[in-house]
Amino acid sequence: MNNSILMTALVAALFLSACDKTPVVVNVPAETVVVPGPAGPAGKAGEQGVDGNKGDKGNMGNTGVQGNEGIQGDTGQAGETGKSGDTTVIITPPAEPAPAN
């Protein structure tokens, strides 16, 4: 009887070790995850900063070069003297008076 109990225990151990169980992998986070709560009231505004230094004035630019003076154009030719025309005087007679009614 001692042998049968021992043999049963060995067979049971063999069967249990022969089961194909896949290992379960559990990822443990390296850091603790913190879930943020509701936002608190806003803090008071900071003081205004100091104004910066004013920059130096820049150098004035060089004066440009004056352009060359233009050449005067040629004088035109004088026209011919006009001919004297014939003078005709037309005298119109006075208008006739309107008839009385």
From TrEMBL:
Keyword Signal in annotation: yes
Annotated signal sequence range: 1-18
Keywords: Collagen, Signal
Composition skew (Low complexity), residue ranges: 34-45
Keyword set includes Signal: yes
Spans annotated as Disordered: 34-101
InterPro entries assigned to the protein according to its UniProt record, in alphabetical order: Collagen
Domain of life: Bacteria
Record protein name field: Collagen triple helix repeat protein
Organism of derivation: Methylotenera versatilis (strain 301)
